[in-house]
Amino acid sequence: MKIENCDIAVIGSGPGGLAAAMAARQNGAKKVLLIERDREPGGILLQCIHNGFGVEIFKKDLPGPAYAQHFINEAQSAGVEFLLDTMVLEITKDKRIFASNKKEGMFEIQAKAIILAMGCRERTRAQVRLPGARPAGVYTAGTAQRWVNVEGFMPGKQVVILGSGDIGMIMARRLTFEGAKVERVLEIMPYLSGLMRNYVQCLQDFGIPLLMQHTVKRIIGNERVEAVETIAVDDRWQEVAGSEEIIPCDTLLLSVGLIPENELSRQVGIQLDPLTSGPFVDNHFQTSIEGFFAAGNVVHVYDLVDWVTGAGLRAGESAALYAHGKLHGNKKVTIQHGQNVHHVIPHSLDISSLAFHEEQLQMRVTRPLEHPVKVQVMNGNEVIASKALPYARPGEMVTISLKDKHMEPLQNAGQLVVRVVEREE
């Protein structure tokens, strides 16, 4: 079996993987392999033909393929080697990768460091346990997006969408453009799970109704979806009797959440956070196993691709330093989620890195806080850092930065707690 050696192997060529591979080369890694199971690099961006990408990095409003192509070009110019149409079968703790493709058959890669950038996948009908028969016409929103934007097929003409995730709301608009009738978007929670801008631009602007605290009670139809029965739920997700409604449709799209793709991470024994389903990482994006790094939606699901790219750039830089024996952590403190916070990334912080990097703590809140709030980083009862925001919502990531001025107060810290509290006007 052929064995290939490299400094850095990156698994996945979406925005996180592309940025990581490029950054690894730019930070001294001599041979960087970017492994992708699809025939083209770019990941999910290739089917995201809507605008909204690159606003933070480029100050431009780009479609997904254009954003991806920029980093594909940059990675190629930097000397990254692409292994496309290649499936990773196994990774081991000693940084060996077993993969296969049509050209080489099965082969082995020995890396000095591995970056995991496999992205995320959609929750399916089975995972949300929708009752009813199993007719044709029930798809995830991402599947429908690929059909319409890449393959040129329409999933149906009369559509109901379950879930207010960003892909679902974007597909409501896209299907409307193509002549379909989107009857309803249903959301089981009392608040949006996606970005407010997508609600305004994709639903409100096109008169598509959104019903909060509603879900699908059953799917009606045998060979093909004929209708769905919807029902309201209370604050405890219990069905409200008498609120049932039959909505005729031929298609049900599911936009009910994304899950980080971590089968390879589990296989090698990397510790996963049960709150995010992604690896525990430090601020270098190094996982619980030395030499394994993770970046992008494989860690936790982002709402802006620019932040995925930022995470990839940092992971690539860190992996290159590790491969050359230059990544050292003198003192680490753990980071915990506190009041109104669901989770925080990273899970630990190398204090010494504050001398070189402004470190961002990224989090999601547990519920909408529509009044002014303060994001606070606490060392015991002491507020180390604070940031004021006009509101905080679960669908929009919240960030706060730690800088070099925070190094001294953190020298004796063992654990930081991040919380979001409401403040007075």
Report what the structure shows:
With 425 residues, the chain is of the alpha/beta class. The chain is built from nine helices and 25 strands. The protein has helices at residues 15-26, 64-78, 125-128, 141-151, 166-177, 196-203, 263-268, 305-323, 407-410; strands at residues 2-11, 32-35, 81-83, 87-91, 96-101, 105-116, 120-122, 138-140, 158-162, 181-187, 210-212, 214-220, 227-232, 245-248, 251-254, 258-260, 292-294, 332-337, 341-345, 348-350, 359-365, 373-379, 382-389, 398-402, 415-422. Strands 1, 2, 3, 4, 5, 6 and 17 form a seven-stranded mixed β-sheet that branches. A five-stranded parallel β-sheet has the order 8-15-9-10-11.
Task: Pick out its properties.
alpha/beta; globular; 425 residues; FAD/NAD(P)-binding domain; 7-stranded mixed β-sheet; single chain; 5-stranded parallel β-sheet
Short description:
By secondary structure, the chain is α/β, with parallel strands linked by helices. The protein is 21% helix and 32% strand.
